[in-house]
Amino acid sequence: MPGFATFSLPGLDQIRGLALSVGPQAGWLVAAAFSSFGPGDYAADYAFYAWPLPAGSPAPTGRLSVPQILPEMPGWDVAGNEDGELVLVYEVNGGATRAIHRQPLAGSPPEPVVREGPEIEPTFVEEPGGGRTAVLPPEQLAASSPQATPGGFNRPRLVRGSGAEPFTAVSDDGDLHLFESAEPAPTGPVSSGLGEGWVAATPDGFAVVAKRPALGTTQPNTHVPPGELFIHRLDRDFQPVVPPRRLLAEETVYEVAVDVCQEMLVVLATTPRGAVLLTGPAAPSQRPWRRFALHASTGDAAGSPAIACDGGTLHLAFLLAPRTKETRLVTGELPLADPGLTGAGQG
Amino acid sequence: MTEPLVGCDPVEEPAPPVLVSLTVITPDTAVQDAEVVGLWRVPYDAAEDHLTIVQATTLPNDPETWAQIDWHGATVVEGSENRRIQLPRNALQDHEVEATLDETTRELTVRIVPRLDRLDDVAAAVATEARIFKFYVAAGGTATIRARTIPDTQAAWQQITWEGALGDSGAAHSKTVALDAGGSFPVKASLGGVEDELEVLVRPLPRIDVVRVQFRNAAAVVDNDTAAAFPAYAWDDAEPDRRIPACFVRNTAIRLSVVLEIGQHPLVQETFHVTGTADFGGTHVTWAFDKDIAPGDATPLVEHDVDADVAIPNVIAAYDALDVQWAYDAAGRGAVDGNVSRHQVYSLLGAPAGGVRAYWTLLDVSCHAADGDAAAVDLANHLTVRFADLAHPIQRKRDGRDLGYWTAPPGNDSGRNTQELLQNADGSGQCGAWALFFLDMLRVHGINTAVRVEVDHPNNVGFLVRNWNFSPQKASVSGTVKPFVDWFYSVPTSEASRFTHRIRGAGVPQDYECQTRPPNGAAGQNNPNPPPKFSNHFIVRYAGAVYDPSYGSVPFNDFRSWENASIQGLWCRRDPLYLAGYDNNRRTGMDPQMLRYQQNFPAGGVLSASGLPGPAGWRFSA
């Protein structure tokens, strides 16, 4: 696996992405963190921060800060839309339920949506592997009023392969719902009882990579609950085409990222043994899935997988030891034409 | 051919006859003693016409010579031409025989001796296999081995040679083998050249052990609070002290399966009467069954579907340390105590409602809180009492972790439903989790009529949980005194100016009138100071009462009562400020309800007049 680099990002909580070739921001990865303002402040005690990072560098091009009234890292996701913008979806937790906001990050001038107060300042440390020190610029990225959805939904995920318009979220009772971009309400559950799901639009419908809740304790530090990974093939009306299929059999899965790369579906998952890359057909097929372990176990948990393809290259990233002082960002890229990746020539 | 010589040769004197030997020729079992010259042993024979014959051999050995034999101490056999004499064998005695021929005399002694007939079958053996006589160990007990001799007389018995680890029976014809300990004890007797042997095999008493118990009619499979599943069995001798929780509907006769390990096979097929007894809060419950076990039976054995003789008590209960004493009685030898299987049993009000998982913590908290209850309303009330006991946080049963309301460190997730609450590493849950946790405690007892209710305000306004300090009204820096306004229910979004206060924060100028909050607000579950303001909140409605599990407050008769007791005021955000107002402490007069209540959010109907409908749509079944 060529082209991997590691950056130290102490204090970084999560990364998401990826959005590629998205115009002036040139961001392909967004890092995020959560901060508390401390005692004595009874307004917005907390804030969610996001920084777009350009490809190949941990130096952010800006920052979004979203006040939160409750001490919980909101669910969020980012992808690039067809207009070359980074689009962010994120939760604002009201207590019982959460609003989900969908918000383009590009545009000017940025509107101040963040209040004054102590800010988190992650240190971007230069690494021999190619990282460089950077200072976060103070400007904001938010450009327009966010669209908000009502209701008890969480863990929003932009649908991959769709131009970052629709997104999905999980209802409190575990159903996965699809939200069209123009509608504040969901069109309906796309799957029931599957827990968290990642949806990729394929030429014939949708591929839903779903993480079903599994027995076991949460991942250390990230506190992500364990699950089992399945892929569901749906037509355009969300009807199942073939029975669901287990991916990574016998393995616990924590977090997942999905993208569609031409005729290939790529999945980057974090497991107790590290990050795992899966490639398989975008359309229902009997072709086997291929599995690649991306790093040997170092004793550090892997989290926040992110993956996207751009042209002929597959970009991926994940964190090691997330939410610790030892957090490191691992990025890498692979040629999509790599026969080892596609399984070309195999039956 | 040679011609005889013709002449006159001298005539030689004939040699005197010689008695060469005396030999016992009948019976063929006569034995000449190897050490004592002239001693012959002849087996005893009770028949008078069964004689022993002594025959002489002479030189020359011909009738003429035999006729010269002078016999003493015997009767010449008729027709033997004085060569043989006969002796009786029907008495144990020595016959001294003497014969003289010319100048030679021969003597012998014919000793009529007893012989061993056999060793009797050993009496009272539990089982016999060929010449192996099998006994169970019996402290102080003996097996007696009786020798039969020919003749079967005292004189004969005293000549028996015994071999083996034998004890004295008190009779010359018998020996004993002690049955105090197990082992193989060979016994050998010999007499008169005849041997017999047998084996006494002493085995421990048969023993069986209950090594595994499986409940057959549990109300539900108990979930280990989302951690690794419990074993499929209810108890296993491999972990004898481990109590695996199980739940049953009250008044159920518990059915179970029992796995038996044969520790010591019986010597013959025997019927084992197996019993298990337990005390369910004063109700004595017994499981009993008979099991035939043969010497060659494979082990372990399984006895399926053993029903208790009586039902468990007809109340909710938690039997944390339920011990079942197993015992068996094999072939009527008396009851023998065996293993004690250890259990933790919860007795439910009713069968769990469909869809609810019987998490261990749900069972433990609810059954302890409602111990002895037999009515749904009592269960709900006692659950409320437990939730209200904030000084003793509810603990996750699997690891003893205190469960709390928004107790995770900032940034960490707090659970949103029962599963996430029980899975959460911090033991932290949001109000939705606590509401569902309470609902699931009812549902696990079969109560499916409680509903989760979402509380919010329809105009994008949040609410302040009680114990805020609203400062007195005074002029702001602009000199304007904002009147206190008793606004309620629907706050127009354009009327933000009617919020009378600003929430103190890092970005709020300190010379502006603002409000603060006391160090501690209304305490929640394991949290003396939960988040002070929300946009929405989940509570529970059941049987007309309103419950707030997150805070453990007492049940309220209606939503307005809950609101007045729990909500201090409203807040809204007007960037970059947070405004507050509608101090519930200052509201007077009609004291109306401010907030909106939606039942079964998001899928249920709306309780208030102006709510949003739940999302309509279709479902896809995976």
Verbal overview:
The complex is a heterodimer of chains A (347) and B (622). Chain A is mainly beta and 347 residues long. In chain A, 1% of the residues lie in helices and 46% in strands. Chain A contains one helix and 24 strands. Chain A has one helix spanning 339-342, and strands spanning 5-8, 14-17, 27-36, 46-54, 64-68, 76-80, 86-93, 98-104, 147-149, 153-158, 167-171, 176-179, 188-191, 196-202, 205-213, 227-235, 240-247, 256-261, 264-271, 274-281, 290-293, 302-310, 313-320, 328-335. A four-stranded antiparallel beta sheet of chain A has the order 1-24-23-22, with no helix packed on it. In chain A, strands 2-3-4-5 form a four-stranded antiparallel beta sheet, with no helix packed on it. The longest helix of chain A has 4 residues, at 339-342. Chain A is globular. Chain B has 622 residues and is mainly beta. In chain B, 9% of the residues lie in helices and 39% in strands. In chain B, strands 35-34-41-40-33-36 form a six-stranded mixed beta sheet. At the A-B interface, strand 3, strand 13 and strand 16 of A face helix 5, strand 32, strand 36 and strand 37 of B.
Q: How would you describe this structure in keywords?
A:
heterodimer; A: 347 residues; mainly beta; 4-stranded antiparallel β-sheet; 1 helix; 24 strands; 1% helix; globular; B: 622 residues; 6-stranded mixed β-sheet; 5-stranded mixed β-sheet; 7 helices; 9% helix
What's the gist of this structure?
The complex is a heterodimer of chains A (347) and B (622). Chain A has 347 residues and is mostly beta strands.
Are there runs of chain A of 5+ residues with pLDDT below 50, and where?
A: 20-27, 38-43, 107-150, 182-189
Summarize the biggest pleated sheet of chain B.
Answer: 6 strands, mixed
Mean pLDDT of chain B: 86
What about the largest sheet of chain A? 4 strands, antiparallel
- Output the radius of gyration of chain A: 19 Å
Strand order of the largest sheet of chain B: 35-34-41-40-33-36
Q: Classify the oligomer.
A: heterodimer
Binned strand content of chain B: 35-45%
Number of helices of chain A: 1
* Largest interface (C-beta under 8 Å): A-B, 67 and 61 residues
What low-confidence regions of chain B span 5 or more consecutive residues with pLDDT below 50? 481-494, 509-514, 601-622
